[in-house]
Design brief:
Order of helices and strands: HHHHHHHEEEEEEEEEHHHHH
InterPro entries: Acyl-CoA_DH_C, Acyl-CoA_Oxase/DH_mid-dom_sf, AcylCo_DH-like_C, AcylCoA_DH/ox_N, AcylCoA_DH/ox_N_sf, AcylCoA_DH/oxidase_NM_dom_sf
Helix content: 40-55%
Low-confidence stretches: none
Number of domains: 3
CATH superfamily of the largest domain: Butyryl-CoA Dehydrogenase, subunit A, domain 3
Pfam family, one: Acyl-CoA_dh_2
CATH architecture of the largest domain: Up-down Bundle
Distance between the termini: 38 Å
CATH class of the largest domain: Mainly Alpha
Shape: globular
GO molecular function: 3-methylbutanoyl-CoA dehydrogenase activity; flavin adenine dinucleotide binding; monooxygenase activity
Oligomer: single chain
Mean pLDDT: 95
Protein name: Monooxygenase
Number of strands: 9
Structural class: alpha+beta
Keywords: Flavoprotein, Monooxygenase, Oxidoreductase
Strand content: 5-15%
Number of helices: 12
């Protein structure tokens, strides 16, 4: 891969083919993002230019059908791409990973006619997806008005909000317990994104709240509904392990970026301890040991993540064959990698300061952003409950009941 590639080069070169080609393209995107990642994190501006970069590079349409301009790639490749981008910018990797899930949501939940139409339009028009689907809030109410559904309510979080072209809405059909998903233009009348995301990490994810005030959607756009009746499949519930693998991979990507950035700092700026007897920091035994320890842990977690991604792809390849058991066993495996990725990423991103030294805490270095990003998102749902899923499976052969978090 050329390390001097620029966005302009993408217009004159053929689209990547195969997993490695797309990972190389993601690395080029990461190289662009890395040039000012710390400064952009401090500024916290809406990442319009960064999303444009994802579109121009082709990463946005990675999973889209080739005949409509998409990359035609699979989920294991998408996870690796997310991980690569996260090395430079965890926020933009989260946006991209969530986009992949919401783009795929039509296939998870919708009828074949619906998802084929959505995926074709998304690839042709390079839609960037956001989602107003935070399950911890009171559900948005959906009223049935004949041929139209009307969504009304509020969500605390809506990742992608102001940089998205389309938004996935979710609510409960009034008077029932039936959930309804629909994709709407992000500039729809009644959809208001609030500029209130002000957290210590993942600062560029546009994850603020959203007000949904009478957003009207044709019944035909209600994912998975035929004649106002939902057509359930076990595959519908694969959204949780799929997005949890997105989480694990951008945690690991952030950790890898932290380790690479720290290693460069150690080689070029760190000073050896004056009483240690070594001329260079890279010769300090404790520094060498720490890098070896952290790298071994990261490599092991990455290998586990890749293995489980391949297992998940087999379910995506044959959606109608997914059973409660195969889905449950996959969820347990995903829970295991989520727990490992969380622990490894937190350890890497805080221990890098032990091997870079006091001067590395300068705000200008921006090393703190790696820990802040991981710490912020790993609170999404308690990792103890992920370990519990694994433990219950081992001890009693119990598979997790599908919920918004399992």
């Amino acid at each position: 891969m050329s390390t001097t590639a620029t966005p302009a080069d993408w217009q004159t070169r053929p689209a990547p083919t195969g997993t490695q080609g797309w990972i190389d393209r993601a690395a080029e995107v990461a190289a662009v993002l890395a040039t000012d990642a710390a400064a952009r994190d401090r500024a916290g501006a809406t990442p319009h230019a960064e999303v444009r970069l994802l579109k121009d590079s082709g990463l946005v349409t990675l999973l889209g059908p080739v005949q409509h301009g998409g990359g035609g790639q699979d989920w294991p490749t998408a996870y690796r791409v997310v991980r690569e981008v996260a090395k430079a910018d965890g926020s933009i990797a989260q946006l991209l990973g969530y986009h992949y899930l919401w783009n795929w949501a039509a296939r998870l939940v919708g009828t074949r006619e619906q998802w084929e139409q959505v995926e074709a339009e998304a690839a042709r028009r390079q839609w960037f997806f956001g989602g107003a689907v935070n399950p911890r809030d009171r559900d948005v109410v959906v009223r049935d008005e004949g041929d139209t559904l009307v969504f009304t309510g509020r969500k605390t979080f809506s990742t992608g909000s102001r940089v998205s072209d389309v938004t996935v809405l979710e609510g409960v059909l009034d008077g029932t317990d039936q959930h309804v998903f629909a994709i709407v233009p992000s500039d729809s009348q009644g959809l208001t994104f609030h500029d209130d995301w002000d957290n210590i990490g993942q600062r560029l994810t546009e994850s603020g709240s959203v007000t949904i005030d009478g957003v009207r959607v044709p019944w035909a756009s209600a994912a998975g509904y035929v004649d106002k009746q939902f057509q359930p499949r076990v595959y519908n519930t694969l959204n949780v392990p799929t997005i949890q693998l997105v989480f694990a991979n951008f945690y690991l990507g952030i950790a890898a970026g932290a380790l690479e950035t720290a290693a460069t700092y150690t080689r070029t700026k760190s000073r050896s301890w004056l009483h240690g007897g070594y001329e260079q920091a890279v010769d300090e035994p404790y520094v060498i040991d720490a890098y070896g320890d952290l790298t071994a842990k990261l490599w092991a977690a990455e290998a586990l993540a890749d293995r489980i991604a391949e297992e998940g792809q087999r379910l995506h390849d044959d959606p109608d064959a997914v059973t409660a058991r195969s889905r449950g066993e996959f969820e347990v495996r995903v829970a295991a990698v989520k727990a490992r990725a969380t622990d490894v990423a937190l350890e890497v991103t805080h221990r890098i300061f032990e091997v870079t030294g006091a001067r590395a805490t300068a705000a200008a270095e921006g090393l703190d952003r790696f820990w802040r990003n991981v710490r912020t998102h790993t609170l999404h749902d308690p990792v103890a409950y992920k370990r519990r899923e694994v433990g219950r499976f081992v001890l009693t052969d119990e598979i997790p009941e599908p919920t918004w978090y399992s």
